Structures are given as structure tokens and as C-alpha cells.
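Following up on my earlier thread - several people asked me to post the actual chain instead of describing it. Fair enough. Here it is, all 769 residues.
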Amino acid sequence: MANTRRRVKVYTLNEDRQWDDRGTGHVSSSYVERLQGMSIMVRSEEDGSILLESKIQSHTAYQKQQETLIVWSEGENCDLALSFQEKAGCDEIWEKVCQVQGRDPSCTITQEILDDDESEDRFEEVLDTSGPIELPPCELSKLEEISEFLSGVPPPAIREKIALAIEQDNYIKKLLDLFHMCEDLENIDGLHHLYDIFKSLFFMNKPSLLEIMLADDMLFDVIGCLENDPNHPEPRRHRRFLRETAHFTEVLPITNAELVAKIHQTFRVQYIYDVILPPPTVFEENMLASLHSYIFFNKIEIVTHLQEDDKFLRDLFMELNDDETSEERRMKLVAFLKELVHFASQLQVHHKDEFFKTVSFHGLLPALEMLLAYDNKSIKQAAVEMISQLVDISPYLVRDFIMKDGKTQEDEMLVNQLIDYMISDGDSGDAYQLASLIKSLLDPENMALGPNKMEKSEFLSFFYKHSMHVLTAPLFAATADKVYKDDYVTSVTLGHIIELLTFCIEHHTYHIKNYVINRDLLRRALATMRSKHKFLVLNALRFCRKIVGLKDEFYNRYIIKGKLVEPIITAFKENGNRYNLLNSAIVELFEFIRVEDIKSLSSHVCEEYRQFFKDVDYVSTFKGLVLRYEQEKDRKQTKLSDGGYTVLASPVGLFSSRGPNHGIIHVNSRFRRDARSMEEEEEMWFDQTEEENGEEAIVPQPDPLPAAQEHEPDFKSRKTFVTSKINDAPLVNKKSPLMGLVDYPDDDEEDDDDESGSSPAKRARLNST
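Reply from S.P.:
Thanks for posting it. Predicted structure:
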């Protein structure tokens, strides 16, 4: 097995400032005669070819990042990186590099400044943090010197001093004057140096410098400096694009001139960030954080201004809801509203909530509900995206609107429109987004966060009354017949529905339990296990597994009565010996029943499928399930054959040996009972009580069971016996329904009781009759 400690990936930085993967191999560090020095060598793990052979230079800056990454530059345009599989391998090579350069291996960068004599002389004063920084003269002949001075990444303390000196000397204004001079003279070298200078100024990550460069009177000149990238033969025409191609569309008139100027500035600065500046290298990571923050706070300011303009918002939603608004105009309004909501989603939590309260007050949700009814797909997608952002931030606003909407037609309700859109959308990406959106609306964990503390019970009751049948309608329609349409789109839709129902099983308990049992929902879900699409089969199985995982006897009795394990066993048989996800999921279901000792389900599946279980021998789950069932059966049989006492069920519970008034009364074959005859409902109640309490009514049998009954399940023999005995019992006082069976002991039995030391309380009760 190869040594994974030295396994690495080799990366190089391409012209687009993106990392290219050059291959995977094993790294070593040794002396190379040809290079006359210690070198880093990587050989391919596929064919043994050399992927990298690099001499460790004494003056090259190597940087260690994230404990498994070493990055360095060779030459002007060659950035290299080694990504190690294990930290130990990275540490080993890093120690070799530090040993060659005479550095402490605990450092993360071996060189912070240039080591050549000229650079040391030039930066000697810069490195003296005790005094002010002296900038190179801002002259045309000094542009190259200025570019070298500002390049690299100086320490934070030095960076502060450089920024302060640039501000105090009005240095940026002087540089822009040189830019106009270079443009007039067509000084290409000077323009290239100015590009490097202003790029370095942005990467200094100083807010004070950004305020100067991004001011309205300097912004276009700064963009002009960034047009002349030395890596491109022709200058980029960014200013022409911003002035002639990019147009500001004022959907609604904005009377605030400062706000309009802020919108223009934000767009242009965003353009610099996204388009003009190159992606930062590994060394320049997080060096544009201040620029990103500048854009962020501009957006906050724009949202705040619009949020406070009541007339603007009122006009926006009035025109959006107007039936006479043309579709083209409405699309522009929707695009503007979508961008405004997107800006607002970047605010802090409290401010986001306040924003959505404000726009909801002006009619956001009725507008979105109306937009969902349009046939235009782009409008519907925009509406869904805005609702998703609203639900993520203030879900209580959406739920409150749904309950108070007052729509007489259920199909016009917002939540039902979302469900219909998910169902009709098929397998597109919108259906997945809508399923996630509906799940967020139904999530109890984000309920009761708003002013209405009863939101959970009220909304869930509303949803199950008005919307659950809309959600499950395709499932009932698809499984109405034994043969159903099993195409891919239908299966994806049913998969979304069953996934949502699984979520409800996990989080809603009471409401979903009633719905599942009353509508026989599990049977419909398991009917989809006949599908040829395995993702749908697994969804149905997951739904059943979630129900079984609750260990709720109501669900268990529902499964047993409906024989709902049958579709799972059928799918297991049809899957055969294939070792796949379906096989593992079914085995895990029965393993859970065995480990958690769910007696009702265990008895049911063993009685129905015992022989099949014994044939599955590649896992111990099924044999263990049968073994546990047989042990439980033997235990009950032994308990029954011991006899000697009876545990009686009554309408208030099971009598047990808890005291003189709750007696286990020793009986012979003669006994009395209540005047009422055993009715079918009572018999069912006895059985249910026995299941819930894990005990059974045991009646002594002096004679052994007939041979034909010995192999029957234990509960059957006792049920037959109890029914026959009780129905033949004589009647006693009709006014005493709680009276138990009274023993009339023989003399021999009394003697036995005396010898066995029965309690005085029991004797008093027996003798009292």
C-alpha cells in the first residue's frame, strides 16, 4: 500500500488566476545534483513520471496554509501549490524548506520581504515602525519605483503607516494626474505601472483608501487605471461599457438624489469587484474584504432609504397588483422587487425582519400570491424565490397571511398554489426548491417565534384541514389502481410528496397520526414500492421506517391489521441477492424491530414470514428476530403451564398482586364472574390492554393443552380458553361490575395455603366470602 503521508496534488495558477490540477503523486525532498541543491520532487502515482522538480531557493517566499498546503512562486508568472493528503506529510516537507532557509518550522511564511541588497536599502526606513513612512516622489519617472514599493504584502503596522502617508500627501490625486498624462502621451509602460499601483492599493484592504478612490470625482479615473492590465495586449474598455452600454432603469421615480447617486456608485464598485480586479491568489486571500464590506454597507443604505419611503412602496405594490398593468411592465416591477428583496436578505437579522414587516404591510404577500397564478414561468420563479427568502427570515408572516387570507377557494390559497406548482413542475429544479419551502413552512421548530404563541397548533390544524388533501392527491390518484403510471416525472413528484410526509411524521405527531390512520396513507405510500425507480422505493421505505421508529403502538396495530409489511417483504424478495441500498435499508428496518424489541411487530412478522426469514442467512438479523420471538413464546408458554393464579383485566386496569384489594386470587376450576356476558368490544379491549401492558389474562388449566394446541401461538390458546370459561360462568351481583373472580377453596387448598405462608390479607378476603 502506498504511503499516503506523502501523497500530494500539484497545482499551478493559470492566466485566468485559477488553480489547475497537474496530477497526483508522491513527494520527496532530497539533494539533486543537476540542480545543485535540496529540491522538492513529485512523481506521478500512475506512471512514475516527474510532475514537479523544484529547487528550494533560499530567497523564495514559501507559505504554509490550512496545515496541508504549501504555496510559493517561481519566476514572475508561475505560482505553485502542493496539497497534502495528510498533515504529517506537509509538516515533513515544510521542515525541509525551513531548514534550507534557516527558518523556524513553526512559522507559516518563510520570507516576508525581499532579501536583495537594493530592496533592503529601499525598505530599511519602511521597516522602522517607529517613524513615519516616506513615499517615493509622485513623478512620471518614478512610477516603476512606486509600483515596486507598494507591491507585496507588508505587515499590518507598516500598512497603516503607508495608508496614512497616502492620505496626508493627497497621493491618489497626484497618481491620477499622472494617469491623464500617460494617456495623453500614450505611455504604455506608465499605464501598466499605474495598473499595478492601483491594484496594490485595493489589495491593501484599507477602508480609508477605498473612500478616496471610490468617490464620485475619482471613480472613473481609477477604473481607467485598471483598464491597462500588463497581461493583456489591448486595454479593456471598462469606462465605455459603464457609460454607454450599462443603463440605469428607473422602474419607479426615485426623488432622493443622494439615493440615486448611491445606486450608481454601488453598481460601479460591484463591477470593479466582480469584473475588473483579478481573483486574489492564495497569498492575497481576504485582501478584498474591505471592498466587499463597502459594497455591503452601500446596499444596506439603499434598502433603508427605500424602506422608509412609504409613497414609493405604496406605488410599487399598487401598480404590481393592478390588473391593467402590462406583462412587460409587470416583469420590470418584479425584477426590481426581486433585487430589493435580495439586497434586504443581506441585512442583519433584526433589520431583515423589520424590512419584511414593512413590505408585508404594504402588500408584498398578496402580490406574490397573485404572481404565482401567472402562466409566465420567469415571474413565477421570481415569486417563489422571494417567498423562500421571506420564509427563511420571517416564516410567521407567511403563515399568518395564509391563515388570514380569507380565500373562499382553496386552490387560490398561497400554500396550495405552492403545492400545485411543485406537483406540476415535475423534475425541474423549482420542484426541489418548492419542496424545501413547504417543509420550512411546516417546521414546528420555527413556529411560535412571532407574536402568536399558538401559531403551531393553529397553523397545523389549518394546513391539515385545507391543504393536506391537496398535497396527497397525486399519491392517492397514482395508487388507486394496481397498475399506475410509473414514468420518471411522476415518480419524482411522488418522491417529493412522500419526503414531505416523512417530515410530517417526524415533527407533527398528533395531526399526521390521525391522517395516516384515517386515510390509510401508509398503504398508499408503500404501493409505490412496485416502482422501477429505486429512489421512489427508498422514499416509501423511509416513510415506513420513520413510522416504525416512533415505536407507537397505534401505528404498530395499524401496520399489523393492514398487513403493511407485505410490500416490504415483496420488494426484499424481488431484490434478490443484490447487495444494494434497498437491501441494506430493509435489513436495517428489521434490525431496528429486533434491537428495540417491538414485540407486536416482531410477533407479527415472525408468524407471517418465519420460514422466509430462516432462509436469509447472510445477516444475523432475521434469525435473531425469529430466535427472540421463539424465546418469548416459550417464556409465555412456561408461565401458562405453571398455572395456579389468574391475572384479571378490568375496565380500570389489570389486577395484580399489589395488595389485598387488587388480588391475584388463588382459584381452582370453579370461579365466579360479573353478571355481564363477554361482548366483542370487551374482548378486544382485553387484548389491547394485554398488548399495552405486556401481560395476559392467565387462567389455570389443570389438564394439559390438547396436542393440537401446543404448537399454536400462546395468545390464541389463552383467548379461546378465556372466552369459553367466562361465557359459561354463573352470574353474580349485577351492581358490582368490578367484582373479581372468587375462589371457593377446598380444604386441601386451604392447608396448602397455610403451608405456603399466604398473606393474612389474602386469607381475610377469601374467608370473608
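Residues 136-297 form one domain. That should answer part of your original question.
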